[in-house]
Automatic annotation (TrEMBL):
One of its GO terms (biological process) is heme A biosynthetic process. It holds the Pfam family COX15-CtaA. Its main location: membrane. Keywords: Cell membrane, Disulfide bond, Heme biosynthesis, Iron, Membrane, Metal-binding, Oxidoreductase, Transmembrane, Transmembrane helix. It is found in: Membrane. It is a multi-pass membrane protein. The keyword Transmembrane helix applies. One of its GO terms (cellular component) is membrane. It comes from Halorubrum alkaliphilum. This is Cytochrome c oxidase assembly protein subunit 15. The chain crosses the membrane at residues 65-85, 97-125, 131-151, 163-182, 194-219, 231-250, 262-282. GO terms for molecular function: metal ion binding; oxidoreductase activity. The keyword Signal does not apply. Pathway: Porphyrin-containing compound metabolism.
């Protein structure tokens, strides 16, 4: 007899873990933007010679809370991989979940190096470690999203595909509000966290759209136009590449002058235009057929 409640499916658990990872990403950006990453007297895993600092809102607490949230999320990620193997899921689901766990130690190590300027590794608070920390986090988030989509009883349905493109569009638009490329608002620590929440939501939507479109390209359903699916997949992939560029430029990985602001603005515009193109292609396909375009499973 299983002790797991009936409502707790693998896909729901993996989706919750993905959401935790998204929030951890935003929390990490906020921690770095406020300078709290340099708190805790540059110690890791201790914080100012304590295991648990004073529970008041200050740089030490922000950095410590980020570490605790990361630890909880890490155990959840390990749980996704364990469930994928014990649950007998297909090879691609197990591979995505396992890779997320495999690169997790590297992410933890880079995180420790990043916050130990005068601790374990002198000079750890550098552009290269920030870049590595950001890119590996994005890889883990992407792998968890894939494990979530592939690990369900159903494939990428037409409704899910349309919703995914819609989420991508809303996410790109929302990220533009907080982006340092557009400057609607001051690029404060809070705005930076909001930018990454919106951008990662868009990234998630584009991944799901690509998975759903790929199912159509492979002919997993005979009542989908493979050409339409291929176009949607290409547009979603292009939008994702442009979006990742804006996510990287959202951090201080380069000297952000007028040139890089223009590059950022072009990338943001391309992400939005390509996502709009994918939505338009789907809409046009539905108008021609008179019914929603089926993609993936039932």
């Amino acid at each position: 007899m299983s002790l797991r409640p009936a409502w707790l499916t693998f896909r729901r658990y993996a989706a919750a873990t993905t959401a935790m990872t998204l929030s951890l990403f935003a929390l990490g950006v906020y921690t770095a933007a406020t300078g709290s990453g340099l708190a805790c007297q540059a110690q890791w895993p201790l914080c100012s010679d304590q295991l648990i600092p004073a529970l008041t809102i200050n740089p030490d607490f922000i950095e410590w809370f980020h570490r605790v949230w990361a630890m909880i999320t890490g155990f959840l990620i390990i749980g996704v991989a364990g469930w994928a193997w014990r649950g007998g899921f297909d090879r691609r689901t197990r591979l995505a979940a396992t890779l997320a766990v495999a690169i997790l130690p590297f992410q933890i190590t880079v995180g420790a190096i990043t916050v130990t300027v005068g601790g374990l590794v002198p000079g750890g608070y550098t552009v290269s470690t920030h870049a590595a920390h950001l890119i590996v986090a994005l890889c883990i988030f992407t792998l968890l999203t894939l494990a979530t989509v592939w690990g369900g009883d159903r494939g990428a349905s037409p409704r899910l595909l349309r919703a995914a493109v819609g989420i991508a569009l809303v996410g790109v638009l929302a990220s533009a509000v907080f982006s340092r490329a557009v400057r609607f608002v001051t690029y404060s620590p809070g705005a930076q966290a909001a930018f990454y929440i919106a951008g990662l939501a868009a990234h998630l939507g584009l991944i799901v759209a690509m998975v759903g479109a790929t199912a159509g390209v492979r002919g997993e359903r005979t009542d989908i136009d493979a050409s339409t699916a291929r176009t949607v997949r290409t547009l979603a992939a292009g939008s994702m590449a442009a979006l990742v560029t804006t996510l990287l430029l959202g951090r201080d990985l380069v000297l952000y002058d007028g040139f890089w602001q223009q590059v950022n603005l072009v990338a943001l515009g391309a992400a939005l235009a390509l996502a709009l193109g994918a939505a338009w292609v789907l809409r046009s396909a539905e108008s021609v057929s008179g019914t929603p375009t089926p993609v993936g499973g039932d």
